[in-house]
Amino acid sequence: MITATRQWFRRNRTNFAIGAGLLGAGYLAGQYLLSKLTEARQRMSDDRIARENLRRRFEQNQEDCTFTVLAILPTAFDNVVEALPVEQTLSELQRQKAERLQRSVAPSEIASTDAPSEAPSTNDDDSRSLKSFQSESIVHASQVVDGNNGDGASLAPLRPKKSKAQLWNDMKINSIARAFTLLYTLSLLTLLTRIQLNLLGRRNYLASVVSLASPPTHGSRISLENHDDDNLEQSYGNDFETNRKYLSFSWWLLHRGCKDIMEKVLEAVKEVFGPLNPREEISLERLSELTLEVRKKIEGGTEEERRASKWLSFLLPPPEQEHLVLTESGMEPDQDTSASTDSVTPLRRLLDETSDIIDSPSFSHVLTLTLDATFSVLIDNKIATLSYHLPPVSASTARIVELTDPQSAKTKVANTLAVFCRQAHAIGSGAENEYLAAMENVRDLEAFAAVVYSSNFDFEPPEAGSKGSGAAETRPTTGRTSAEDEAASSLLGGDVSIVEREEGGGGEFEAAWGKALAREDGKDS
Predict the structure, then answer these.
(1) SS3 track for 76-136
(2) Is the pLDDT confidence value at 458 over 60?
(3) How far apart are CA 424 and CA 133, in angstroms?
(4) Which runs of consecutive H residues, i.e. helices, occur in 359-472?
(5) Domain with 259 in it
(6) 463 and 380 in one domain?
(7) Secondary structure element (H or E) that encloses residue 282, with its range
(8) Cα(88)–Cα(86) distance, rounded to whole angstroms?
(9) Both 79 and 93 in a single domain?
(10) Helices 86-104 & 164-213, crossing angle to 10 degrees?
(11) In a shared domain, residues 137 and 249
């Protein structure tokens, strides 16, 4: 029996060897497939976590942009109001009106019967217009008293003393120009803040990736010495001082740029609205046409002109004024912003990239859309409902107002000025700003922010930065995983792109922006 069994095993040993080999190979293949399945599952989990993390960071960045704009907007508002003192003009008009009334009343017993003898066609119109400013605008009695020093004597009389017609013309031009200037300032400040905070948010994301991907040495965190621009953490955005200096460049728009915009708006408003008489009636359609004419003179009349418009001088200072901005912001100026230095510092790179984005055609396009939204709130909503007493139009529909009597949609120019005056204060408000909320509903603005935040993840390495502008930019070895690469491009719905710095460039930025818009269209559908 034992012999027969032994012989049987000997005869079939080849089959047993083959079977054992197949079982071993099957086991190894199963373990390999299981490990691959586990790896794929882990990769999918990492992808999901990376996408959610980047999405959360991006959304938080946009909320920070909103709060930042609301916090610093009053600074620009104060500068514009100081440059266009509509309240002072109103105070002078009321003072002259009071003097005319005093002269028209004789110091006799017939004063009470002679007082109403003033021509109603002029006096009544002026009285209603001035009352409209007091009741409908933001002007309070305290402001008027301050201008008259409480006893009718002007504290600072206008130079030289102007006639009533000249004062009403100043009131017309300054009220309209002030509201329009604040709309442009708000839109530009919103875009500048989005660019700044999203660039810094992207750099901080890269810094966290570099920190997590860097292997520890001897159980402790790696510590690199900072030799100019060789520090990886500072190169990728953990340099608090560089970030603080970069954000301080919004000072230029708040103090200088807004006044430059004001001069440009004033010139256009004088040319378009100058011939209007404050007493004449104007339809809402005519007011919209005149507003559009002002915008064409400022932004451009055609799509090509708008794309070619340059807004950089309003948003960032010229290189020779950069030290002034740092000084006025309370920081010690240094050589970080000098474009003539041999090494390209992190602050210089941030400013150059910001300039490239501002000069891109996409910036002008998004700016036009945000201005469309804010001007629509001002003209189609506020002016239409408060001055023309038309029913409000839904924000999701086009402005189509059907009137049984077109002549009823008219009002005097002076009545619209009170609304322009009050809305200027609403535009510059740092709380519950309807105009900022309208801009945030523009989907292209979020797409623009997504491009700024997600593009140019292949940031130039410190070695390239130290070789000057002629060095080629290559992807640094940051140890970033494929999940983080895909998450970086998920906001665009495609591959990660960079902003070209070459003269006349911006093609890849345009492609990335187009992908972001396509993704937003997919969400809407």
Answers:
(1) HHHHHHHHCCHHHHHHHHHHHHHHHHHHHCCCCCCHHHHHHHCCHHHHHHHHHHHHHHHHH
(2) no
(3) 13
(4) 361-375, 384-386, 413-427, 434-440, 443-454, 462-465
(5) 69-83+170-212+227-468+477-524
(6) yes
(7) strand 281-283
(8) 5
(9) no
(10) 160
(11) no
The pLDDT score that the predictor gives to residue 126 is 57
Distance CA 184, CA 294 (A): 12
- Exposed, middle or buried: residue 13 (CB in 10 Å: 0-12, 13-18, 19+)? exposed
Burial 249-265 (b: 16+ CB within 10 A, else e): bbbbbbebbbbebbebb
Q: Which residue has the tokens 């047993």?
A: 16
Tell me, yes or no, whether 207 and 294 share the same domain. Answer: yes
Question: CA of 215: how far to CAs of 209, 210, 219, 462, in Å?
Answer: 12, 10, 9, 19
CA distance 444 to 364: 12
Q: How far apart are the first and last CA of the chain?
A: 80
**Percent of the chain that is helix, strand, coil (3-state, to 5):** 70, 0, 30
Question: What's the pLDDT tens digit per position in 61-120?
Answer: 899 999 999 999 999 999 999 999 888 888 888 888 888 787 776 554 444 444 444 444
Q: Whose CA is closest to 238, among 214, 254, 218?
A: 214
Instruction: Provide the whole-model pTM.
Output: 0.74
Separation of alpha carbons 260 and 202, rounded Å: 31
What value does the mean pLDDT take over residues 130-137? 52
β pairing state of 281-283 and 410-412:
antiparallel
**Tell me, what's the pLDDT at 281?**
92
**Scanning the structure block, which residue is given the tokens 């953490």?**
233
Alpha-carbon distance 440 to 39, whole Å?
Answer: 41
One domain, residues 243 and 278: yes
Burial of 439 (0-12, 13-18, 19+ CB in 10 A): buried
